[in-house]
Specification:
This protein is mostly helical. The protein has a single domain, classed as MetI-like (MetI-like fold), CATH 1.10.3720. It contains eleven helices and no strands. The longest helix has 37 residues.
Length: 280
């Protein structure tokens, strides 16, 4: 599929356009926060605590007088970092294991799949609890826990999609021509399942943002003074009646980020496999 043709079809796909805009907004917020924010996100100003939105504080302040808008902007950095690194870990190891299982078959495939099933028994939250019990809470432990959870997801997906490609005629012809299993995997299998992996990476990115927020909410993720949307929700629950908007802003940031990535993944699935779009 040519790039101009893909872009022409993408402009007419509502889910892709909305998802791309929301995802671009998340990325822009993270990039902007690297060089500028309205106030230092950790600056405490007790006399101005729980202030309503104003020209000085666009979204108001929290119970310690910290600027909400600044915390939302800087907190987006954690979401981007966790999503990129955790999905990168899951994709790197998972695709390699899934491709190995599909290429070797037999006991190798069985071993990889049973290991994946075993890993699924330990969701990201439980893995994070075990890691923080040993090494202490922090952003790194959140990334590792979410990354480990993503490995079997990509391994199973890669193995299933690769098995379908291995049954194709052009792969059988390559084997008859004397190509080895790894050469066939690199030349034929991985390029033909790349679209499936891209869609899954987008969806896993959204899941990673939710998981990071949940871990931070429980105190297992990002630690003070670094802002985190999940921890902002945790701190807002004590002020639900006095200042309910404290929970709305980080909740809206999480919702829009996850919604954007899910819509983007849904749009990519349709655009990269036109048969799905025609079936709708």
């Amino acid at each position: 599929m040519s790039v101009p043709g893909f872009l022409a079809r993408a402009r007419g796909h509502a889910s892709f356009v909305v998802g791309a805009l929301l995802t671009a907004l998340l990325a822009a917020a993270a990039l902007l926060s690297l060089v500028w924010s309205p106030w230092p996100p950790g600056e405490i100003d007790i006399p101005n605590k729980l202030a309503p939105p104003s020209a000085a504080h666009w979204l108001g302040t929290d119970s310690l007088g910290r600027d909400i808008a600044s915390q939302i902007l800087v907190g987006s950095q954690n979401s981007i970092v966790v999503g990129l690194v955790a999905v990168g870990i899951g994709m790197g190891f998972g695709v390699a294991l899934g491709a190995l299982a599909s290429a070797r078959r037999g006991w190798v495939e069985e071993l990889v799949m049973r290991a994946s099933d075993f890993t699924f028994a330990f969701p990201a939250l439980l893995t994070a609890i075990m890691l923080t019990a040993i090494y202490g809470p922090g952003l790194i432990m959140s990334i590792v826990a979410i990354g480990i959870f993503n490995v079997p997801v990509f391994a199973r997906l890669t193995r299933g999609a690769a098995n379908a490609v291995w049954a194709r005629e052009y792969v059988l012809a390559a084997r008859a021509a004397g190509k080895g299993a790894w050469r066939i995997t690199v030349d034929h299998v991985l390029p033909n399942i790349a679209s499936v992996l891209i869609v899954q990476a987008t969806i896993s990115f959204a899941t990673a943002i939710l998981a990071e927020a949940a871990l931070s909410y429980l105190g297992l993720g990002t630690q003070p003074p670094q802002p985190s949307w999940g921890r902002m929700l945790n701190e807002a629950q004590t002020q639900m009646f006095a200042a309910p908007m404290l929970a709305v802003w980080p909740g809206a940031a999480i919702m829009l980020s996850v919604l954007g990535l899910n819509l983007l993944g849904d749009g990519l699935r349709d655009l990269l496999d036109p048969r799905l779009a025609r079936a709708r």
